[in-house]
Amino acid sequence: MFHLRTCAAKLRPLTASQTVKTFSQNRPAAARTLGQIRCFTAPVAAEPFLSGTSSNYVEEMYYAWLENPKSVHKSWDIFFRNTNAGAPPGTAYQSPLPLSPGSLSAMARAQPLVDAQPNVDKLVEDHLAVQSLIRAYQIRGHHVAQLDPLGILDADLDSSVPADIISSTDKLDLAVFKERLRMLTVGGFYGLDESDLDKVFHLPTTTFIGGQESALPLREIIRRLEMAYCQHIGVEFMFINDLEQCQWIRQKFETPGIMQFTNEEKRTLLARLVRSTRFEDFLQRKWSSEKRFGLEGCEVLIPALKTIIDKSSENGVDYVIMGMPHRGRLNVLANVIRKELEQIFCQFDSKLEAADEGSGDVKYHLGMYHRRINRVTDRNITLSLVANPSHLEAADPVVMGKTKAEQFYCGDTEGKKVMSILLHGDAAFAGQGIVYETFHLSDLPSYTTHGTVHVVVNNQIGFTTDPRMARSSPYPTDVARVVNAPIFHVNSDDPEAVMYVCKVAAEWRSTFHKDVVVDLVCYRRNGHNEMDEPMFTQPLMYKQIRKQKPVLQKYAELLVSQGVVDQPEYEEEISKYDRICEEAFARSKDEKILHIKHWLDSPWPGFFTLDGQPRSMTCPSTGLTEDILTHIGNVASSVPVENFTIHGGLSRILKTRGELVKNRTVDWALAEYMAFGSLLKEGIHIRLSGQDVERGTFSHRHHVLHDQNVDKKTCIPMNHLWPNQAPYTVCNSSLSEYGVLGFELGFAMASPNALVLWEAQFGDFHNTAQCIIDQFICPGQAKWVRQNGIVLLLPHGMEGMGPEHSSARPERFLQMCNDDPDVLPNLEEANFDINQLYDCNWVVVNCSTPGNFFHVLRRQILLPFRKPLIIFTPKSLLRHPEARTSFDEMLSGTHFQRVIPEDGLAAQNPENVKRLLFCTGKVYYDLTRERKARGMAEQVAITRIEQLSPFPFDLLLREVQKYPNAELAWCQEEHKNQGYYDYVKPRLRTTISRAKPVWYAGRDPAAAPATGNKKTHLTELQRLLDTAFDLDAFKNFS
Ligand SMILES: Cc1ncc(C[n+]2csc(CCOP(=O)(O)OP(=O)(O)O)c2C)c(N)n1
Ligand SMILES: [Mg+2]
């Protein structure tokens, strides 16, 4: 026994009851209760026509028939009566079997079916054809929409019309239209022909083209589908696996007459277009030979963004964080964010002196933060545009991270108050992998910002490259399909269509809290920049562009013709804005100094003094009381909740931790616990993100406990430490370095009172996030006067694991440090160490003890300013019995040790020491082992440089002076052209005024970071240890 409902539902993505519940087209009450539906005695699913989407249609008919058998065509009435009566598959239209043998009345009822059969077959087929046709428009209508304002390119890179759409590219030409219909019917695609055009067809619930009507003639159905899907808006949404969301979109685009604008709205739109257009004109007039990456050809971007912001503000958003590339950036700053025009204009004056430290950046990269009243909604709104490098799309994850942080700090768990808008160029959106990586963060619990509105300035060119050479996907936006984001393509020369899709996009975000894409199909009136000649490479396109009337002019003419504005009114609007620009230009001449600080995208109120200085230039002790250490240690080695069963192996790990605590010592994992736990107590939010960080790649951390009996039941002991502690977030990330590091950098931007850490699975994987490191982390403060305290944890060390997984590439980080290798700083200066930290672009450390790791993490927050911190973290040292620190070295009054001097026998008789070895990190343990084995504790001193940059000149000078008779050598396990040697050597030489050579004990130069052969690895290690302890090793070189 089959229920029609049941079998139909199986054929659809979601149950019919959901459709019925959510959407308006009314169903008979009886149809809502399956129990009340009469059962088919035949397996209806086997009916030949009842497959896929046709089941929707039949279901429609069935509901209507249930309520009133007369409401459907007679043929359907016969069909349902017949089928209900038990007709076997394929025979429902044939002479039915009597309901019960010998029942005359049943025979009599079935009789009409025989006569009706030929028409019934045709009718069912035709209805199914119409259903398919509607669906074809919904899926593929965008392929024939008129999206290119120039009318020369196909936005989807394909000039053909899909085979199952009746439309022609020239929809106004009836003859072409008829011909296409004929071709489709001759080919038997739908089995419809011209004679069917005036037949009335019942509409399924999966369309809203009927408005109040439930049936329409085919001609009208096609016309309305054309109106909805094939004009200036191309909607891509049928890939979305959610019926409610699909219905929502259909309703927004199919409902007849839904795209209405009041005269007031049209005037606002015109005024916004005036500003957008005249701003570019003004810049062009004043600085015709300056690069500004103008918006000409996509002036509609400004009203588009404003509409998204207005609508979002109306729905409760009060903070919008934006990221965008070069194109139209100044215009967005001026007319969306409302940066004072004089501040923008004075950027064109190259003679202006910078008031702030740092090297600054070009005007079309700077960020901005502004709070103002939204004039449309009368609500407060804060707008921030994140500064970005030239590297297209690199700012995407940064914007997401900042947005997430702002949501986090204001308790906006659903993204109702804070949202992000990302702008893209067509070539970059399609080409840059980071776009994909960022999309993949969009729905992850610890990374979601609850929907980003993406706006693509699709000018159908990337510098000089045509779309056909720049992408393999039909649209530049196809990447968004992976997250089921609807994509609204729109012809930018139809400003009202643009405003409409922007409204829908903002509503989509506030309804479903998911990403959405607006693809502004436009053109680029000038070359890539204003100096560029586009005719060299795109002669035909640019001939057309020269002829193209600017959108402002087109729209103004339209509104004048509609009587919405008159010509003088329009001209007055233009001169009013021109006057505003002129006045601002005059004021900009008075600006004598350029304040980069005015372009800060993330101010930290209260953290600095009013003039932006640190509140002190000291750092308190990073130690803790014994009580705090013990308490954190106890929580770290326990399960702080009831009825929670952890894995037996983990119980043993926690037990070992407990023993460490009893012995007043920490290993690496406990040291990290102590640092995090104590900062949480002080109200500092901590966020640790990266691949598998919850457990830790090396299974040492275990910050999230998993109940072994209840799936997904977890416990984070770090959040059970103190009564009013700050929250701890630890999250396994997607397998993306570029995206996730960018995201965490953005998160760290939002507040100085958080410790945000990103851990690489292995240190070498950071290179897939190189762009974030090179363009943001290293030079961020210099370019944008914006500090950032992000911490990178990069597992590093040569452990015979092969060329991958060994090196976090310290040489690269060190090469980018801004301290001068050849200049000895003034070591007598008060607070030398803090000043050095203040002046550096980032801090690079390699700790050899857990205690020092603990101190450097705490110092990161206790410093009165923020700098990125790069930590090369260990692998084997995580469990090395000697890599332990006593509580004594972590108590109040203790500090991070930039240098750990020799403290053994050699230090007691320094004059006798023949060699002073400098090293950093894990090799220290190899060196001490070897020294012991060789009995050279009095001859060789070993000093560890824990903070590589800024270089501890002061402490190292002290070390060198202590051992007057020692020769100096740098020892590292990395190859000579890698590691620290090139960084350390000139600085050590400067420290000693080049009085002595600094020898090298380490691996030879190499292309790969490490050998793939374990034996070779050990041989190399032994060789470098031999050199380090062979006191004659350098004789021949002196
Ligand atoms: C990652 C990266 N690679 C290359 C460039 C050089 N570049 C600057 S703009 C541009 C073309 C961008 O085209 P599109 O994204 O369509 O934006 P449009 O300039 O057309 O607005 C290129 C290749 C860059 N800025 N970033
Ligand atoms: Mg482009």
Quick structural gist:
This protein has 1038 residues and is α/β, with parallel strands linked by helices.
3D structure, described in words:
The chain is α/β, with parallel strands linked by helices and 1038 residues long. It has 34 helices and 28 strands. It has an 8-stranded mixed beta sheet, with helices on both faces. It has a 7-stranded mixed beta sheet with strand order 17-14-18-19-21-20-26, sandwiched between helices. A hairpin with a 4-residue loop joins β6 and β7 (379-385). α10 (301-314) runs parallel beside α17 and α21 packs across α23 (668-681). The radius of gyration is 35 Å and the shape is globular. It starts with a helix and ends in a 9-residue tail after the last helix. Residues 1-48 and 94-117 have low confidence and may be disordered.
SSE blueprint and pairings:
Blueprint: H1 4-10, H2 16-22, H3 54-67, H4 74-84, H5 104-140, H6 174-186, E1 200-202, E2 215-217, H7 218-229, E3 233-236, H8 243-254, H9 263-286, H10 301-314, E4 319-323, H11 329-335, H12 341-345, E5 353-354, E6 368-374, E7 379-385, H13 395-409, E8 418-425, H14 426-431, H15 433-439, E9 452-458, H16 467-470, E10 487-491, H17 495-512, E11 516-521, H18 539-547, H19 551-562, H20 567-588, E12 593-594, H21 626-636, H22 648-662, E13 665-666, H23 668-681, E14 685-690, E15 705-706, E16 714-715, E17 728-732, H24 737-750, E18 754-759, H25 770-777, H26 780-784, E19 791-795, H27 810-815, H28 832-839, E20 843-845, H29 850-862, E21 869-873, E22 885-886, E23 899-900, H30 905-908, E24 915-919, H31 923-934, E25 940-945, E26 947-949, H32 953-962, E27 967-975, H33 981-991, E28 998-1003, H34 1014-1029
Parallel strand pairs: 4-7, 4-8, 5-12, 8-9, 9-11, 10-11, 14-17, 14-18, 18-19, 19-21, 20-21, 24-25, 24-27, 27-28
Antiparallel strand pairs: 1-2, 3-10, 6-7, 13-22, 15-16, 20-26, 23-25
Helix pairs in contact: 1-3, 4-5, 5-7, 9-11, 9-19, 9-20, 10-17, 13-24, 15-24, 21-22, 21-23, 23-29, 24-25
The protein binds thiamine diphosphate and magnesium ion.
